[in-house]
Each structure stands twice: as structure tokens, then as C-alpha cells.
Amino acid sequence: MAVYLCHEQPDLLEHEAVVVESRPGAVLLNHSALHPGGGGQLGDTALLGTLSGQRRITGIEIDSEGRWWHLLDDPMAQIDGEVLVSVDGERRRRIAALHTMSHVLNALVFDEFDGTLVTGAQINDDGTGRMDFDLSEVDNDRLRALADPLNMIIANGVNVATDYVSADESASTAGLVRSLSVAPPPTPDGQLRVVIVEGIDRQACGGTHLTNTAQSPPLSIDKIENKGRRNRRIRFSAAGPFPH
Ligand SMILES: [Zn+2]
Q1: Rounded to the nearest whole angstrom, what is the distance from the C-alpha of residue 50 to the centroid of ligand 1?
Q2: Whether pLDDT at 167 is above 80
Q3: How far is the CA of 52 from the centre of ligand 1 (A)?
Q4: Core vs surface per residue 109-126: b (16+ CB within 10 A) or e
Q5: Which of 4, 33, 185, 196 has the smallest number of CB atoms closer than 10 Å to its CB?
Q6: What's the rounded Cα separation, in Å, for the pair 204 and 174?
Q7: Does 3.30.360.10 match the CATH number of domain 92-238?
Q8: Rounded distance from Cα 55 to ligand 1 centre (Å)
Q9: What is the whole-number distance in angstroms between the Cα of residue 93 and the centre of ligand 1?
Q10: For 144-164, how does the pLDDT look when each residue is reduced to its tens digit (9 = 90+)?
Q11: Does 120 or 187 have the greater pLDDT score?
Q12: How far is the CA of 197 from the centre of ligand 1 (A)?
């Protein structure tokens, strides 16, 4: 059982919902196909159709009880009753593409630099992203050179799959949980979601992903920055249009 509806039904972008609680500028829905964000990935945005017109959902704020407040573009808007949710699909695909390829970049750096770990990541909705790695004495040209295998993997069209493993298995599998910040919450039956880029990477993740690397545009590595003595930041971006 998946923990998010968008994991269970990744193609569900439009659905009816009922506002179960509201306050000015935000609503709780009985169910929602939006991804809430987290782990360096932006959450979904959506159109919210109501009887009195359309509003935009600009993001999700999770309160201390784990409830998803869908934030509205008008902080004074009060919405109740039945609504129609339409997730911004193109935006989700752009973010999913760069996020999925950040798994691949993570694996390439892990292989090239002997188990180096990610210390941070951010994917934006403008076709850019960054990843930070725990790396000190390395030649930045070696990092820039990873653009070649990265684009080779896009060109080769590698399948991306999702699986669920027990908490016990995830604890005993080295490298599965790379960063606690991207690991999704466990499912109600105690399973952890794992994303597999076939033959390349396997890690716990709650983000949104492509189903094949060929759905990513080619990428360029734009800049390597030193962030402190032990940190390198790789900035990358789409080097072509996003495929439809
Ligand atoms: Zn992921």
C-alpha cells in the first residue's frame, strides 16, 4: 500500500474531491493526487475548480498532525464543498525528469568517487537543479566529465521502476537509504518505497520519477562550486526541450 495517492496512481492528474476543513487561504481535501514535496523536490501545484470559479493550489503545508493543507493563491479565499483538482502535469514531469536524473548523477558520483554521499539536493521547476556531495580533494573536471555518462544513460532509455521493501530489509541493505531527508515516510504496513533505475541505482525515495530515462531532456553540468572544505555543489540543467 502506497503512502501517497500520487505513488499509487502516478497518471491520476485530475480528480474530484471534497473540502473536509477550510481556513482562509487553505483547504484540507478528502483525498489529493498532489505530491507534497520534500527531500529537495518541489511539491505539485494545481488548479482548483470550485462552484464560484478557479483558484490555484500553490503548494502543500503539512501540519503537526500530518494533515495536508493545500495553500491557495489568495490568502483570503475561503473554499468549501466539492472541488475539482487538476495537477499541473507538465510541471510535474519537468521536476520528475531532473529529480530522476539526480538519482543517476548520485550513482555516477558514488561509483566514481568511492562511495561519496549526497549532502543536499534541490530541483526547481525552471529546468535547473543542484546536488551537493561530500567531496574534498577532487578535480572539478572529473565531475564535469560525468555529463557524458549521464547523457548516455538518457539516450539509452533505461527503465525506472518502483518497489516496496520491509523496514528490516531497508535497514540491512547498504546504500538503500542514502539520505534520510529524501526517504519517504513508511507505508501504514511498515514498508519503504524504493526507486530503481535498472542496473544503475536503487534507493529509498518518496519523490516523483520518470518511468524511463529517455523521458528526460539531455542535461548539461553547468557549474561546480566549492561549498566549504568538504562539499562540492554540482549545478545542472536541461540542455534541450522536455520530451512530450
Ligand atoms: Zn527520487
Answers
A1: 33
A2: no
A3: 37
A4: bbeebeebebbebbbeee
A5: 185
A6: 11
A7: no
A8: 29
A9: 13
A10: 999 999 999 999 999 999 999
A11: 120
A12: 10
Other C-beta atoms closer than 10 Å to the C-beta of 236 total 23
pTM for the full predicted model: 0.91
Extended beta strands in 67-172, E state = 68-72, 81-87, 118-123, 128-134, 160-166
Cα separation, 44 vs 15, whole angstroms? 14
User: Which residues sit opposite 29 in a β-bridge?
Assistant: 19
What is the residue extent of each domain of the chain?
5-87, 92-238
Amino acid identity of residue 106, one-letter, is: N
Domains 5-87 and 92-238 share a fold: no
CA of 22 to the centre of ligand 1 (A): 31
- Split at pLDDT 50, 70, 90, the class of 172 is confident
C-alpha cell at 188: 501504514
Half-sphere exposure of 45 (CA within 13 A, CB side): 12
Does the domain at residues 5-87 carry the CATH identifier 2.40.30.130?
yes
Q: Taking the CA of residue 237 as centre, how many other CA atoms within 13 Å lie in the half-sphere pointing to its CB?
A: 9
Q: Measure the CA–CA gap between 26 and 114, rounded to whole angstroms.
A: 46
CA of 51 from ligand 1 middle (Å) equals 36
- Which residues does 180 contact at the CB level (< 8 Å), separation at least 6? none
In the chain the first and final C-alpha atoms are separated, in Å, by 30
Residues 155/106, Cβ–Cβ less than 8 Å: no
Q: Which residues of 17-51 are buried (b: 16+ CB within 10 A; e: fewer)?
A: bebeebeebbbbbeebbbbbbbbbbbbbbbebbbe
* Backbone conformation region of residue 201, classed left if phi is above 0, alpha if psi is from -120 to 50, else beta: beta
